[in-house]
Design goal:
With 277 residues, the chain is of the alpha/beta class. It has 10 helices and 8 strands. It has one domain: Rossmann fold (3-Layer(aba) Sandwich), CATH 3.40.50.1820. Helices cover 39% and strands 15% of the residues. The chain is globular, with a radius of gyration of 17 Å. Keywords: Hydrolase. It holds the Pfam family Abhydrolase_1. It comes from Micromonospora halotolerans.
Length: 277
């Protein structure tokens, strides 16, 4: 089964329905994907999901108040973390691998710190630590991207996720086209209320005191493009330096926030190698 055909399911978490999709072989430790700002189930690159699902059970989900999931979106990363942990437990999973992209990477770090036994391995992409350089400016950068997209009649992700070089523009167009592959049963669009709550949570994360990342002793794979405007690439380097058991993928060249989507073949190959027991 391909991600574009995976059925959307729901599980009750404290009386609130959380929607999710899963695919890939049963058995082993599943890979839980935690999404970026303003993203719903349909914003995951199907090449990344299908590539990982060739070897692992992959689960994507909408956290509280996002997409078709119920409830109200929290305004802190910590509260989002508690919801994600509750979702994992509601599925009856004893242990997971995490792929946290952007805001999902913030949540992944907190899960590993709060429930370390629940996590086996972690992949952090396009993300950074609490208090990381420039993270509190995501709101301004995002709004600039939205305005630019409106003026150029383009999806904001074109400029927010990819460089403005010829290669970056082409990679962005290909990525956005892949996001349209699912034609039926698409997720509910992100609400403005949830979007605002996420922006507040990210700004607070960016203004926090730096966390002690030495407590995250899990194997961690760190990836990003070399020109990330949303979560400056310096944060990726900082994560690799501060996490005691990290593996750093050299920054993808001529790539932005969506580096793992632009270089999806290379990323999937490296991720599968990292996730091998």
């Amino acid at each position: 089964m391909a991600y574009k055909d995976a059925p959307t399911r729901a599980v009750s978490v404290d009386g609130v329905d959380f929607v999710y999709r899963q695919l890939g072989p049963e058995g082993g430790v599943p890979v839980l994907l935690l999404n970026h700002l303003a993203a719903v189930l349909d914003n995951w690159d199907p090449r990344v999901v299908d590539g990982l699902a060739a070897k692992h059970r992959v689960i994507t989900f909408d956290n509280r108040g996002v997409g078709a999931s119920g409830g109200s979106t929290p305004e802190t990363i910590e509260a989002m973390t508690h919801d994600a942990i509750a979702f994992i437990q509601a599925l009856g999973l004893e242990q997971v691998d995490l792929l946290g992209f952007s805001m999902g990477g913030f949540i992944s770090q907190r899960i590993a710190q709060e429930e370390p036994r629940l996590v086996r391995k972690i992949i952090l992409a396009g993300t950074g630590p609490a208090g990381g350089e420039g993270i509190d400016k995501v709101t301004a950068v995002t709004l600039q991207g939205i305005v630019r997209g409106a003026l150029t009649f383009q999806d904001p992700k074109q400029s927010l996720f990819f460089t403005r070089t010829a290669n970056g523009r082409q990679a962005g167009r290909e990525f956005l086209q892949r996001l349209k592959e699912r034609e039926e049963g698409r997720d509910k669009a992100m609400s403005l209320r949830a979007f605002r709550a996420q922006l507040k949570a990210i700004r607070r994360w960016g203004r926090q005191e730096p966390a002690d990342l030495s407590t995250i002793t899990h194997p961690v794979l760190v990836a990003n493009g070399d020109s990330d405007r949303m979560v400056p690439s310096r944060n990726t380097v900082a994560l690799a330096e501060r996490l005691p058991n990290s593996e750093f993928i050299p920054l993808y060249p001529d790539a932005g926030h969506g580096g793992i989507f632009q270089y999806h073949e290379e990323f999937v190959r490296k991720a599968l190698e990292f996730l091998t027991p």
